[in-house]
Amino acid sequence: MTNSGKDGKNLVTMMSFMIRHAFGRLNFIPRRLSSSIETYSHVLGLAHCNWLTHKPNDLVNRDTVRNNNALYKWIPCATRLKEFGVAFERMEETNLFDAKYKGGVLRMPGLIINDDSETLLRNLMAYEKLRLPEEGLKYASEYILLLSCLVNSEEDVKLLSRCGILVNKLDKTKDKVVLRLIRRLEHSNSCAQVCFYSNIFEEINQRIQNRRHRWMRAIRKNVFKDPWHVIAFMVGVLLFMMQVFQLVLLPVWLGFSK
After folding, report:
1. What is the pTM (predicted TM-score) of this model?
2. pLDDT score recorded for residue 124
3. Which residues, 6+ apart, have CB-to-CB distance to 51 below 8 Å?
4. Helices and strands (H and E) in the chain: how many
């Protein structure tokens, strides 16, 4: 039945409907379909091809990544990135893997975490490992790698949940459930380098190495961590200004008054 073009097209259409039903919970938006059934070696291949979000020329070559140690530096967790002034926003109407970083803002689609999410992501990672060549685009595996960098504690889960990047449908009262799920996905992930998100990793690491942002992180962490520290800081600034006035401005003012 699959030998004829018409039957092959019908089969691809039926498969695409099935994938939309299953992967729609993970923000799956079809991009392009081939009517030839021979194009896809596996039903997961159909889903994977439709998650292609970059043109091949826009991607970083894997040989370049291997030769550039800067791209191997993993980024810190979400709460620490916030200390460096990185903000997080949810992207709407886009595929799950369309993460973008610009101007200190990391934008990611919302990941709806329910009973099916772990199975679907595991299947995609397994497909990438077994079916794709070494230089193939491993979207799911690199996405889990990015997510495992961002989520290192329950506080990271809370931060990304407030931004809408993580949507917990399993147990809204326990961020620990989401943390454990991400850890399980991380441990089963065979991806050891980043290509798809290499620009994001590089730009965030450049921000972290910037002296100004390191100073701002120290101020946020040590001065503005709670209201009492803020009040103490403001009182200190006020006392410093009064000392400057007494030592510098007051003698000058008295001299003019004479």
Report:
1. 0.70
2. 85
3. 28, 31, 95, 96, 97, 139
4. 12, 5
